[in-house]
Amino acid sequence: MKKLRVLALLTMAGLCSVGYAQPTALSQYAQPQLSFGLAGVVLPQYDGADRYRVIPFPTFRWVAKGGYSIQTSGLGVEANISPWRGFTFGPIVRYRFGRGDKSNPIIQELTPVKAAIEGGGYASVAMPINEAKGRFVALRSSYLHDMNGSYNGYLVQMGVNYIQLITQKVYLVIGPGTNYASQNFMDTFFGISPADSLTSGLPPYAAKAGFKDANMSAILNYQFAKKWSVAFFNAYARLVGSAGNSPVVKTAGSRNQFYTAVMVSYRVY
Asked: Into which CATH architecture does domain 2-267 fall?
């Protein structure tokens, strides 16, 4: 039962991660289940923005016998096709907001970046620290590639999480992560062409491939009824490298990126 409850927390982590790597490698610990939920998510309007958007987001998770599963993850869907306990991998499809802000006069003068549909895969492994006390550590990495010509590049996400079953109804997941982005990704979101420099007043800037951010996230889940639970997610990311040094961020945005979400879910079985 403890293993199943820890998995429920990891599920919430994946649902609310808004693009950050979160572990789901305890899928093989779970019994078949089906759950639905609704999340309220607050996140930056685009990478490097100093303004935020609030969106509602429906969630679901289905786990079959053997731990095979499909679930919402961030602003997308992922599936586990691994037959091995403690190790998961599978495909991901995810949505990424583009760059455009009519309320920011500088960003308004830059070439808009359309929203991206990303596809790729992930792998995650969970290892018990003290299984009897509900303590685990989980490692995860994912690869996402632009599929609709938004930025014509890729993003590699990496993270490590500590998982703690605090009580029979309260769980915690916390850990650091980072994102490595290709040159096309960085230049699309953080570069400034000569033409954009003329219209916006920002200096020309060529962003290079590299680590985009360093982040820390935490999820607290509370099962308040037999089939109902609520999860609270908070994350902070600091833009670094070419992303953090871009005038798009330093002059017209912010290096500090905050994410928060609240999700209520109902388990059908």
From this structure: Beta Barrel (2.40)
